[in-house]
Amino acid sequence: MVSSKDVAKYAGVSQTTVSRVLNTPELVKPKTIEKVMKAIEELNYIPNDIARSLVQQKTGIITLISGPLHNPFFVDTTTAIVNYVNARGYKVNVYFGTEDNLNSIYNAVLETKADAIILSSMLYQDELFFKLEKRGIPFIMFNRKHQENRHFVEIDNVHAGYLAANHLLSLGHQSLCWIGGPHQMSTFYGRYQGFVQALKQHGIDDKTVPTFFTNTNKNEIERAFEELLKLDRRPTAICAATDAIAIEILNLCLERGFKVPSDFNVMGIDNVELSKHHSIALTTVGLTSEENLGFIAIEKLFEVMEKKSSCIRQTESVKLFPRNTTCKNELM
């Protein structure tokens, strides 16, 4: 079996240099890296990850707790996170959380060794936050914030909700409704607060505006839409807390013969890749930079792992992306 000593001899470098190339390549000159990697390839050397992890007291693993894949936001962010982690030479353990399986996922994660954790499942008052801090493992939340106000990367959810509602109101839609998720999550709570701010600014009592709070799965969104259709005063515009909800509403409108935006304006928040597709062209609110929030968060997590930062508190600015699912109210 080929050893690192054989690689060092073949490449004409020390065994320590081979170790540095494999573990801390940023400290090695590019030409040396090229020479060592060529030797590894030609000798078909397979590093012993287990032995290396024991020496370094590292696993080479990042744990990701993502949201469900029926939400395209988590498709986008999971892809970005996994690609970034793999490019940094780490492996990823991915869990997809729902309301039904979160406790079992948390238990599995706490029992498994990893170098760091990135998660989007945290509730505003989640006890998991304190368990993670007690373990001393680097972790970061994305698209979520805990009441302790640290270890997070989020968008400005309050302003996002405000921009979404204000856009519809500015188009002359006085009859709005809100479809969002549970307020135990900072994302949904903040976006709804911004929605209410815009209503009040336009002289509308938020208590008169129909609001539906769902667990965001397809059946619950359909139930909310059916309730919406039964209202005596049917809204002309639907403000959804996420693009995932908005896209499902678009589908329900088409299934029932309604036209968007002539029968209903539909507004989302997140600006996921699917919303930009010309066949959907959803009006939404998203990151001003148009970067992927998962990518931003995983970069910040590595800063913590590398001791470049101790605690991340980052709120990204947002802007409106007007597309084809909203238009001026012709009845104004």
UniProtKB/TrEMBL annotation:
Keyword Transcription included in the entry's annotation: yes
Keywords, sorted A to Z: DNA-binding, Transcription, Transcription regulation
Family annotation (Pfam families): LacI, Peripla_BP_3
Entry-linked Gene3D superfamilies: 3.40.50.2300, lambda repressor-like DNA-binding domains
Keyword hit for Transcription: yes
InterPro entries in alphabetical order: Cro/C1-type_HTH, HTH_LacI, LacI/GalR-like_sensor, Lambda_DNA-bd_dom_sf, Peripla_BP_I
Domain HTH lacI-type as annotated: residue spans: 2-56
GO MF annotation list: DNA-binding transcription factor activity; transcription cis-regulatory region binding
UniProt domain HTH cro/C1-type: residue ranges: 5-46
Name the UniProt record assigns to this protein: LacI family DNA-binding transcriptional regulator
Biological source species: Lysinibacillus irui
